[in-house]
Design a protein that fits this description.
Layout: E1 3-8, E2 15-20, E3 25-27, H1 35-45, E4 53-55, H2 61-64, H3 67-74, E5 77-81, H4 82-89, E6 110-113, E7 118-120, E8 125-130, E9 139-143, E10 148-152, H5 171-182, E11 189-191, H6 201-214, H7 217-230, H8 235-240, H9 244-249, H10 255-260
Parallel strand pairs: 3-4, 4-5, 5-6, 10-11
Antiparallel strand pairs: 1-2, 2-3, 7-8, 8-9, 9-10
Helix pairs in contact: 5-6
The structure holds zinc ion (ZN).
């Protein structure tokens, strides 16, 4: 009997999922900080060398920081979408966000996947759905027969939404991706952070979609400008110097992010 175990999640770590089946695989690996404990938790359930694949939902360090250690300990292949692969492959500490966690991104030898790639484990047959917006190479894994969705940081339970204001993030792409997910029939929903739900996942995703569509372009612009105004920045001068984006990216979260997001 196949099952999905929920591990990880300590500190800033993403959730780590272990699909226990004929061909077991791991989804996301957390940061590097709790690598030893995370590996021990996996090893309590299955021999590490039985893990054939490690799937990364996107490039961010809180999901990929432990990937090199996991790959070595398990002797497993690491899969990531083509659009996020290079940053992990070369160990780009900026776009993976490793710097924000005071660590360097380790280089990971990855195999790229695209939309439609299939991961069959025995009872489960997950298909990769490209869901950019949180990062350009973010993906979700969907098993239609079991109505099971692993959503990475695209949507969380209870209407949560991933940040779009980090490098390669994009609001319009995120909106489109959440629309795609909202059309799936989802029971169990396993997000990259926060608790999964074992039923009625579709309702959670539709809540996320409502939260996103309520957030208009005007709100979006205001949420970017307000913190700058409050800090007495000269907006006109910043725009003239082309520095508005730079200032915003210095780590100020949008209002939406503060309301809904956890993790990178
Ligand atoms: Zn993320």
């Amino acid at each position: 009997m196949a099952s999905i175990h929920v591990l990880g999640g300590m500190g800033f770590d993403s959730n780590i999922y272990l699909v226990e089946d004929e061909h077991p695989f791991v989804i996301d690996t957390g940061t590097r900080y709790h690598l030893r404990k995370n590996l021990a938790d996996v090893a309590d359930l299955l021999p590490l060398d039985s893990i054939e694949r490690i799937f990364l939902t996107h490039r961010h360090y809180d999901h990929t920081g432990g990937a090199a250690g996991f790959a070595e300990a398990c002797g497993a292949e690491v899969l990531v979408h083509a659009d996020d692969a290079n940053s992990v492959r070369i160990g780009d500490s900026v776009s993976t966000g490793a710097r924000n966690f005071d660590d360097d991104q380790e280089r990971v030898d990855v195999t790229t996947v695209e939309e439609g790639h299939e991961i069959a484990t025995g009872q489960y047959r997950f298909i990769v759905i490209h869901t950019p917006g949180h990062t350009v190479g973010s993906v979700s894994l969907y098993d239609e027969e079991n109505a099971t969705l692993i959503s990475g940081d695209t949507v969380f339970t209870n209407g949560g939404i991933g940040r779009w204001d980090l490098p390669t993030g994009d609001f319009d792409q995120l909106l489109e991706s959440v629309q795609i997910l909202s059309e799936l029939e989802v029971g169990p929903l396993y997000p990259g952070h926060m608790s999964p739900v074992l039923s009625r996942g579709s309702e959670h995703i539709r809540m996320s979609l409502r939260n996103l569509t309520d957030f208009t372009q005007e709100d979006l612009l205001l949420s970017r400008l307000r913190p700058l105004l409050e800090q007495g920045e000269d907006i006109v001068e910043l725009i003239r110097k082309g520095e508005l984006n730079k200032v915003r990216k210095r780590g100020r979260k949008t209002e939406m992010s503060e309301r809904f997001d956890i993790g990178e």
